[in-house]
Amino acid sequence: MSYQIGGSLVKLVYFSREVDSTDPGGRLNFQYFETDRIDDCIEFMKLLRDKHKALNGSRSQELCVMATGGGAYKFYDIIRDALEVEVLREDEMECLIVGLDFFIQEIPREVFTYSEADPMHFVSPREIIYPYLLVNIGSGVSMLKVTGPRSFQRVGGTSLGGGTLWGLLSLLTGARSFDDMLAEAEHGDNTKVDMMIGDIYGADYGKIGLKSTAIASSFGKVFRMKLQAEAAEAAEAAEAAGKSEHHESNSDVHGDAHDDSHSSHSFSSADISRSLLYAVSNNIGQIAYLQSQIHNLNDIYFGGSFIRGHRQTMNTLSYAIKFWSKGEKQAYFLRHEGYLGAVGAFLKRQPANWGRRASLEGIEDLQEWRKSLKKTESETKS
């Protein structure tokens, strides 16, 4: 098994075979835990360890776990002592690339493009994939220029990522988990919170290519609406106070003035969630475009647990790349976008005959390996 521990989530990948199966292959399984619940993750890994030992007759000293991410160092001693197995730590950025390359080249119906008109248009696995830009969106964002199997450079990033969205929405809404926040955003209307081009110009700003529905200012309506709501509350309180000479009545009126009744009629927590999701996603999309432009990269892959297959997030990122590049660059997404690092770490020391490749040692020779395999298949058919 392997895991990647980030600032917010633990991503776990483990291999399993059916007990009575004669197939040398098996199944890759994916699981995640919040990093704050690392103890639950460790207990789950203990169960996997014990099951593996029972099925294969292995001893603890014969087993190893692959680890990557910042938490692979932070929680190293805790996990090693709890599992009583060897824990091998791998470089996070390299694991991301190994995992992504594997998905692009080996797994059908994994990589796809996204648009409102054609959601989840799957792309066939391909051999020639370099160069490309990987935008990995976790708690923060890292952007990697990749020119070969182990040839990459971190060219940029931003601190405004999934952790930003999670943190701010936990303060602004009642949502307690990231999935709750995404679910709220699904039903929100950001135009109640954001100032749109149409709010300023009354129509499209065609001269510079901006539609009236484009966001001019995230949260741009909130301050004015808050002032209006406070003024209305003050007026109501003054009117009520003038009609009553009783202190108790006055107290009741002022108590009512502190609720969010007026604000709640203007916008909801769902509207706030959608607005902030767009703000973070648009920011990431534009920075990704700028980095791809600087480094002359046309293929942009978005990974990381921030996305989670959420259609609004993918549509925003995809639209941003298409808009800024005038259609010259393409955004790609993955079904298992949050597990690139964990899969990459797993591939560094995979089970024998697990069904995909014998080893990733000598990954630089992967293209030659694939060519020779195809040649052998062709000769067999003929």
How are the SSEs ordered, and which strands pair?
Elements lengths: L1 E4 L3 E8 L10 E8 L3 H19 L7 E5 L2 H4 L1 H8 L2 E4 L2 H15 L4 E3 L7 E2 L9 E6 L3 E8 L2 E8 L3 H11 L5 H10 L7 E2 H5 L13 E3 L4 H22 L3 H11 L3 H6 L2 H26 L4 E5 L7 H15 L4 E5 L5 H9 L17 H16 L1
Parallel strand pairs: 1-4, 4-5, 8-13, 13-14
Antiparallel strand pairs: 1-2, 2-3, 6-7, 6-14, 8-9, 9-10, 11-12
Provide an overview of this structure:
This protein has 382 residues and is of the alpha/beta class. Among the domains are: 2-109 and 339-381, 2-Layer Sandwich (Nucleotidyltransferase, domain 5); 222-264. It is 46% helix and 19% strand. It contains 14 helices and 14 strands. The strands form three sheets. It has a seven-stranded mixed sheet with strand order 7-6-14-13-8-9-10, with helices on both faces. Strands 3-2-1-4-5 form a five-stranded mixed sheet, sandwiched between helices. Strands 11-12 form a two-stranded antiparallel ribbon. Helix 12 (311-325) links the parallel strand 13 and strand 14 (330-334). It is globular and about 80 Å long. Residues 249-264 and 355-371 have low confidence and may be disordered.
At CATH level 2, the architecture of one domain is 2-Layer Sandwich
The chain-level mean pLDDT equals 85
Provide the CATH topology of one domain.
Nucleotidyltransferase, domain 5
- In N-to-C order, the SSE pattern is EEEHEHHEHEEEEEHHEHEHHHHEHEHH
Radius of gyration, CA atoms, in whole angstroms: 26 Å
In what order do the strands lie side by side in the largest sheet?
7-6-14-13-8-9-10
**Strand pairing plus helix content: what structural class?**
alpha/beta
CATH level-4 homologous superfamily of one domain: ATPase, nucleotide binding domain
Strands, count: 14
Largest sheet: 7 strands, mixed
- First and last CA, distance: 40 Å
Strand content: 15-25%
Shape: globular
